[in-house]
Amino acid sequence: MDVILVPGFWLDASSWSAVTPPLEAAGHRVRPLTLPGLESVSADRAGIGLRDHADAVVAEIDAGTEPVVLVGHSGGGAIISAAIDARPDRVVRAVYVDSGPLADGACINEELPSSGSEIPLPDWTVFDAEDLVDLDGELREQFRARAVPQPKGVAVDRQQLSDDDRRLSVPATVVACEFSSEMLRGLMEQGHPYVAELARLQDVEFVDLPTGHWPQFTKPAELGAILLRAVDGT
């Protein structure tokens, strides 16, 4: 199975390095991505938007011939949902790692502090306490050392989706970290806008992994095992 891993904000393909060994050992073709504008701190991020990141994932899907499992962390959940909308016949499962699909017309996050055309990794005080669970001092230093500014357009552009019937029928796994599966189901029952698109999916399973917003750093072995089960189950 082809497994395409889409990182969240400020991260490149290497952020998945501690998660991929179980998938590779099982014989899956694992393809972690570095999205446009995240190649280096000095990369040009002007004019890069949400559609550019979605198109990069679509191009990776089109580069292969096998069925694809898409994995998206954080803002990567919005990106893979747009890629599924474009290629619903090629994606056999979506895995949302402490994230979910983004509805048509919504944006990922308009509130992050920006500088020109980019969003540097903010001070830790910007994040909620739930985000930072298990992200100790050493991990925070490692994260900040590897962080690349995020193209602002990816955070503020509006999602554009069109193929509701086929997109919503693709099975999904939600890895619930800072918000438990029980909390997410409760929000879905209440019709909360945060989970509006998630509530529309026809086939969703939840797997709890209690930790903060970056399980690829705080619990990589556990996340790798969960991803392997999701892929093999597909």
From TrEMBL:
InterPro entries referenced in this protein's UniProt entry, alphabetically: AB_hydrolase_1, AB_hydrolase_fold, Sec-Metab_Biosynth_Hydrolase
AB hydrolase-1 domain span: 3-223
Protein name: Pimeloyl-ACP methyl ester carboxylesterase
